Amino acid sequence: MKIEQIYTGCLAQGAYYIESEGEVAIIDPLREVKPYIERAKKANAKIKYIFETHFHADFVSGHVTLSKETGAPIIYGPTANPSFDAHIAKDQEEFKLGNITIVAVHTPGHTMESTTYLLRDENGKDHAIFSGDTLFLGDVGRPDLAQKAADMTQEELAGMLYDSLRSKIMPLADDVIVYPAHGAGSACGKNMMKETVDTLGNQKNMNYALRANMTKQEFIDEVTEGLQAPPKYFPLNVKMNKEGYDDIDEVLKRGTQALTPDAFEAAANETEAVVLDVRHQSEFVKGHIPRSIFIGIDGGFAPWVGALIADVKQPILLVTPEGREEETITRLSRVGFDNTLGYLKGGFEAWKAASKEYDTISSISADVFKEKLADSNIPVFDVRKKGEYASEHVKDAHLTPLDFLNDHLSEFPENETFYVHCAGGYRSVIAASILKSRGIHNLVDVAGGFGAIKKAGIPVTDYVCPSTLK
């Protein structure tokens, strides 16, 4: 028996390759499926099953394409109603894979169809669970994403999740291994550990949601406390996972159109496409196409695209580092953004060489920022998350989280120069690009963010309770 976790850091997502006696099961595959097919081929094995733990909201799974390529059936848990052919498993239904068994354990609560897959080894012993978004390490799946589809409140779904955990998962032995669908950084939970594999026994000891003496009401209260609004692209990804989508090869063929600066400019004017610049923030600050949006490929790229562009059908034109065009299109497709029209051939240097107009962002070091703070009462805007701001922040800084920047546009001064920072410089440049695209240019980015600010010795405030923040 072989179990391989295939973890994608930018999505904080775990897919799984399970092999026994020449037969393979894939759980929650990514959009690009060739790596799974090649793994099986190399092992002289056949992909027999594709298991989906639920209709994912934060990424587009590769189940439809993988089934088409291999002929393997797609397995969902009870109550799932996809638009394509799939096997809807009964609770406790068993699937033989070589000399091991995978059992579909219906665990509703995160979503109604949420299913945990229990793996029993060749001796029939419970070995591992693939818990999807039902159980994370340090947390459980948020119960507010499926309210409309289930016609239930988040509290009702949380109560159902409590019952699923207590009746289906916690009775399992402590040595059972937990393989979750996500880790720290995912928007599908709020308190996940950085580790991606653990034992169920350790989770029973340290996961707040698995306390042995926890009442259902305590569980509901704690699991629903502090939930932020989910990213707007989540329902659109659910729809794609439920109804199907174009093969990744078709998306790549459309997106990898090399456009000269003139053709790129014409496409931007004619299609109302978003110009998305994925270079490093230091390069974007020095020069970029006017009104383009920065979201760097080497940061939390795909989730930020989903949160800030939101509409997966939005046409996109790309400015990328040379040689990273296909990678960028692939990573966009992972969160459902399939409408890439092409990329700027030769990158930003070609744009400048063609004598096209370009813009810059004013940026200062933390040391210069310290001097300005000492000289006058300047407006400062912190685009980190509420929890980060609550822990420590520059005195009198305004909290305008990047996730919800559009809700705060009226708060930025119209005529006075203001200063923007995040934790390390990535998010503040995203924020600056969005503000400039909205016609707000009187801003200055603090390079290096809060880390550089603290290093420069700028005084910061003490802890503030997050619940007091808007």
Automatic annotation (TrEMBL):
- Lineage from the top down? Bacteria, Pseudomonadati, Bacteroidota, Flavobacteriia, Flavobacteriales
Annotated GO biological process: glutathione metabolic process; hydrogen sulfide metabolic process
Keyword annotations of the record? Hydrolase, Metal-binding
Q: Which Pfam families match?
A: Lactamase_B, Rhodanese
Task: List GO molecular-function terms, semicolon-separated.
Answer: hydrolase activity; metal ion binding; sulfur dioxygenase activity
Kindly give the InterPro entries that the UniProt entry links to this protein: Metallo-B-lactamas, Mito_Persulfide_Diox, POD-like_MBL-fold, Rhodanese-like_dom, Rhodanese-like_dom_sf, RibonucZ/Hydroxyglut_hydro
What are the Rhodanese domain coordinates in residue numbering? 269-360, 374-462
- Organism, as annotated: Hanstruepera neustonica
**SMART domains tied to this protein:** Lactamase_B, RHOD
User: What's this protein's name?
Assistant: MBL fold metallo-hydrolase
Task: Report the domain of life of the source organism.
Answer: Bacteria
**What are the boundaries of the signal sequence?**
none
